[in-house]
Specification:
Length: 259
C-alpha cells in the first residue's frame, strides 16, 4: 500500500485548516465569549498537533510539488479565510456546545493520529513505507519516460541509450538523471517536460559510458597493453561524435544553450 501524493496533500491541507480553525476559536471564544484559560490551552494544543501533522506531510511532498508557487500560496490563503469565517460564524450563532463537541472529537482524532504516527515511526515502519512510496514514484516516472521514448523514436536523433538502460538506472548515482526524473514527477502531464527529461537522461548516461571508456583507456596505457588502445580510442571518438550530434538537436528543440 502506497501513500499517493494526492493523499499527502489532503492530509497537509486538512490539518492546516484544523490548526487555523482552532486558533481562531481560541481567540473568539477563549478570549471573547467565555474567557476560559482551559479552553484556550485546549485549542492551542489542538493547533500545535494539527500543524505538526501538516508539516510532516509537507516534508514528504518536498521534491514533488513547488511550495513557493502562486497556486500553493493561494490555497493556503483561502483555507485561512474559510477557517476564520467558520469560527466567526459559529461565534455569531453562539453554537458553543456544538463547537466544543466538534473540537473535542477532532482533537482526539488529531492527537491519536499523531501519536500512532510517532509510535510506528519509532520502529522504522514509516520510513520503510515512505521509502517504498518514493521508489514506487520513481519507477512510475521512469516508466513514463520510457513510454514517451517508445512513442517518439528518434525525437532527438539516433538514440544514445536504449529503454533497458534507462529502466536499470540506479537512482542516486547521477545527479543530472535524478533531477530529470524529479522534474517529471513534478509535472507528469507536460509532454515537453518529459521529452526534455528523456534527452537529458540519454545525454547523461551516454556521457557516463564515454567516461568509463576513457578510464579503461587510461588503464590500458598504464598497463602497456598497446593492442587494445586503438580500439578504445576509436570507440571514444565515435561516441563523442554521436553525443555532439544528439546534443545539437536536443538544445535546438528544447531552446537551451549548448554547454
Amino acid at each position: 500500500m502506497y501513500i499517493r501524493i494526492e493523499h499527502l496533500q489532503a492530509i497537509h491541507y486538512f490539518y492546516f485548516f484544523i490548526g487555523i480553525f482552532t486558533l481562531f476559536s481560541a481567540v473568539f471564544y477563549g478570549l471573547g465569549r467565555i474567557f476560559s484559560y482551559l479552553f484556550i490551552i485546549f485549542c492551542i494544543i489542538n493547533t500545535a498537533i494539527s500543524f505538526y501533522v501538516s508539516i510532516l506531510a509537507k516534508r514528504r511532498l518536498e521534491g514533488y510539488i513547488i511550495f513557493h508557487s502562486s497556486g500553493f500560496i493561494l490555497r493556503h490563503a483561502v483555507l485561512i479565510i474559510v477557517a476564520m469565517g467558520t469560527a466567526m460564524l459559529l461565534w455569531n450563532l453562539d453554537i458553543l456546545e456544538e463547537l466544543v463537541t466538534t473540537l473535542t472529537t477532532v482533537n482526539y482524532f488529531v492527537f491519536f493520529a499523531a501519536l500512532i504516527w510517532y509510535l510506528i515511526a519509532r520502529i522504522g515502519f514509516v520510513k520503510k513505507l515512505l521509502d517504498a512510496y518514493s521508489d514506487y514514484m520513481i519507477k512510475e516516472a521512469v516508466k513514463l519516460i520510457v513510454n514517451t521514448k517508445k512513442k517518439n523514436p528518434g525525437y532527438f536523433g539516433p538514440e544514445l541509450v536504449d529503454e533497458n538502460q534507462i529502466i536499470s538506472y540506479k537512482y542516486g548515482t547521477n545527479p543530472d538523471v535524478d533531477n530529470a526524473i524529479a522534474r517529471v514527477l513534478r509535472d507528469k502531464k507536460d509532454r515537453n517536460t518529459i521529452l526534455e527529461a528523456l534527452g537529458t537522461i540519454e545525454i547523461s548516461l551516454f556521457r557516463q559510458s564515454i567516461e568509463s571508456l576513457r578510464k579503461r583507456l587510461e588503464d590500458l596505457k598504464q598497463s602497456g597493453n598497446e593492442s587494445e588502445i586503438p580500439k578504445y580510442e576509436r570507440l571514444i571518438q565515435r561516441g563523442e561524435k554521436r553525443l555532439m550530434e544528439y546534443e545539437k538537436i536536443f538544445y535546438r528543440k528544447t531552446g537551451k544553450e549548448m554547454l
